[in-house]
Design brief:
Helix 3 runs parallel beside helix 7 and helix 11 runs antiparallel to helix 12. This protein is about 80% helix and about 0% strand. It is flat and about 70 Å long. It is built from 13 helices and no strands.
Length: about 300
Amino acid sequence: RGQDSHILNSEDEKETVSSVLGEFWNYCKFFIPAAWLGFVYTLLDRWMLQHWSGSSEQAYYAVALNFSVVALLATSSILRIFWKEIAEAKYQNDTERIKRYYLKVSRGLYFVGALVAGALLPWAGEIITLLLGDAYNDGTLTLMVMLLYPVHQSMGQIGSTLLFATEQNRIQVIISLVFMVISMVVAYIMLAPNDMVIPGFGLGSRGLAIKMVVLQLIQVNAIAWFIARIHGWKFEWTYQLVGLGGALLAGWVAQLLVGVLISSNVIVLMICSTVLYLLMMGALVYAMPLLVGLDRNEINDYISKIINLD
C-alpha cells in the first residue's frame, strides 16, 4: 500500500507540475513574437536615424529620451504594487476594486507626467544650455516633444499591467504587435530623405520624437478602450485633454509672468516659475479633483492631514 501511495503521489506531482508548466506556457507564448519584433523595431528606429540623419541627430534624440525617462520613476516604483493589488482583486472577483485602483493610479500618474512636462517644457532651451552647452541647442525641439512622452507612457504601463494581472495578456500583445509594425512604417516616413524612391520628410530626431509621442498616445488609448469594454466601464478621455492642456498652459503662463515681473538669472527665474506653476496646478486639481482620480472630500482630507502634520 505504501508503494501504491507513493506511485499515486508521484503521478499527482507530475500532473501538478505539468499543469503549472502548461499554464505558464499559455500565459507567456504570446510574448515571443512581441519580443522579437520589439528588438527589430527598436534597432530599426535607431539605424534609420543614424543612417539618414547622422550622429548629431542621434545624440539629440538620446539626450531627449534620457530626460523623458526621469519622469517615469514614479510609475516604475508603483507598478509591482499595482499588479499585486489588481491580481488579488481579480482572484476575489472584485470588479469594483479593480476599477477604483485602475482609475486612481492611471489618472494620478498621468497627471504627474503632465505636471512634469508642463514645468519643464517652456524651459527646454535653457535646460539644454545649462546642462549640456550651446552645442546641443539644435536639439531643443526634440527635447520639447520628448518631454511629452512620459505623460502617456505612464498611462500605457498601468493599462498593460492591468491586462497582465487579469490574464488578458493576449490583447496587450496583439495591440503591441500592430503598433510596432505601424511605428516602423511611420518612422521611415518621418526619417527618410525626400529624394528616396519612396520619399519621406527627413525630420531627423524631431520626426522620431513626434512619431513616438503621437503613436503612443493612440496606442495607450486603444488599450484603455479595450480595458473599459472588457469590464463594462465607460471609456473616458477628456481628463487627458484637460490635465495635459492645463499643465502646458500653466507652464507657459508662469514662465511669461515671471519673465515680466522679475529680472534675474535663469536659475532664479526657473525656481520662481516652478513655484507659481505648482500653485496654479494645485488650484486646478482642487477645482477638478477627478483629474487625479479623487473626489473633493479626499482632497480635503489630504489637505487636513498636511496641516495637522505642521
